[in-house]
């Protein structure tokens, strides 16, 4: 193993260690798996140093993303439903949904895709299992843990592509963005407005979508995209506010009697 690769692996291990930071559980155990559908993007609020760098650059809660592939890998993993993600240590891998059952997550669901298109998105991600994470990206992100440079917000997204020059390596959100791009599904495309004229001389605006470089996508983009529906497991499974059990509020203290 070359020295840069060895250093990259060591640095990746350091950055991936969880920090003492509380994470809010989004839903009850088991509810997340019961809600996910094939093709859903699961966003995760990470607690590692690496997650902190992503949150700084993107100014977002979400630092990681994974693609739900359902039972597409059941024959390899004993029938479990799985997610495909790009991990800084292991590269592109499959993990069970239960891995993220106890952390803050959000489900983003594409709308309008046919079943065969969903399968194509999943197949794209599965075909890249085993690819390594782009270690150059790790070196770049590590610099922003040492000090937070005064980078204007409009330029921070470009920081995500500093190390992403090798197409055979992956970054979590880039992998998923490229999977959806393979079926021409929009996330946050660049929009060009073209003015055209009818035979009657009337002008109308036509929007033309341009696919953006997948290296420039961050987990938050699936959250803010107008083309992904936000799914909340608790609401999807019969939430009724009238069935909640609240703790009894403590009786207010009479300040006048307390002084006697």
- The share of residues in extended strands comes to 15-25%
What is the CA-CA span between the terminal residues? Answer: 77 Å
Number of strands: 8
CATH class: Alpha Beta
The number of helices is 10
List low-pLDDT spans.
Answer: 160-168
- Name the strands of the widest sheet in spatial order: 4-3-2-1-5-8
Q: Which structural class should the secondary elements be placed in? A: alpha+beta
Q: What can be said about the biggest beta sheet?
A: 6 strands, antiparallel
Assigned CATH architecture = Alpha-Beta Complex
Q: Write the CATH homologous superfamily.
A: endopeptidase domain like (from Nostoc punctiforme)
Q: Compute the CA-based radius of gyration.
A: 22 Å
Report on this structure:
The chain has a single domain (3-248), classed as endopeptidase fold (from Nostoc punctiforme) (Alpha-Beta Complex), CATH 3.90.1720. Helix content is 31%, strand content 19%. It has 10 helices and 8 strands. It has helices at 3-16, 31-35, 49-58, 115-126, 135-146, 153-156, 172-181, 220-224, 233-236, 255-258; strands spanning 41-44, 64-70, 82-87, 91-96, 105-110, 190-197, 203-210, 228-231. Helix 1 crosses helix 5 (135-146), helix 3 (49-58) crosses helix 5 and helix 4 (115-126) crosses helix 7. The longest helix is centred in the N-terminal third of the chain and has 14 residues, at 3-16.
